[in-house]
Amino acid sequence: MADNWLVLSGVISRAPQHSVSPAGIQHCHFSLDHESEQQEANRPRRAWCRIQVVASGEELQTQTASLTTAMQVRVSGFLSQQKTTNGLTRLVLHARSIEQIN
Fold this sequence. Notes:
This protein is mainly β. It has one helix at about 60-65; strands at about 5-20, 25-40, 45-55, 70-85, 90-100. The chain has one domain (about 5-100): CATH 2.40.50.140. It is about 5% helix and about 65% strand.
């Protein structure tokens, strides 16, 4: 099996939206904005991204119940692409763990 694991911290920039799939699986979707300074070629580089996060399953719903916009969190999970309703694809972080950062 190939490696696919990401830990990313940031600020929730789009309010979490809760839904239930036709199969009865609970989902929470939100946008995460990450900003940091990283080293590349021995020089500082600003790193910034916005990524969509989806947390699926009953066990993660307790971790997402109190999430709000502007909250700082650390999300661990795997990456996969998702096709939007207009046919475009985007990278999505499928959460396995969400930790609030104070």
